[in-house]
Design brief:
Elements: E1 5-7, E2 10-14, E3 28-33, E4 43-46, H1 55-74
Antiparallel strand pairs: 1-2, 2-3, 3-4
């Protein structure tokens, strides 16, 4: 059973997938804002450059990758207004 992880007002879920039965697992995360005023559409991201041995490993990597991505987004300052 998959579980959501809360982080910085987002729900993160690992939704990793296996393209074929004989291939490794591709990490995928799905983000959804917990703020009711935010866009309700979830955002997902696949890491096609990373292949894991198991779904558990891929989901753990995907959740950490999502946290890193959110940390990077928060550190970007908005452009100054003219």
């Amino acid at each position: 059973m998959k579980h959501d992880t809360s982080y910085k007002n987002f729900r993160i879920r690992g939704e990793s997938f296996q393209p074929t039965e004989s291939s490794g697992w591709i990490p995928r995360f799905v983000l959804q804002a917990e703020n009711p005023d935010a866009d309700p559409a979830p955002v997902s991201h696949d890491r096609l450059d990373k292949v894991c041995v198991s779904q558990t490993e891929a989901d753990a990597f995907a959740v950490q990758d999502a946290k890193n991505w959110l940390d990077d987004q928060r550190s970007i300052a908005p452009c100054p207004r003219p």
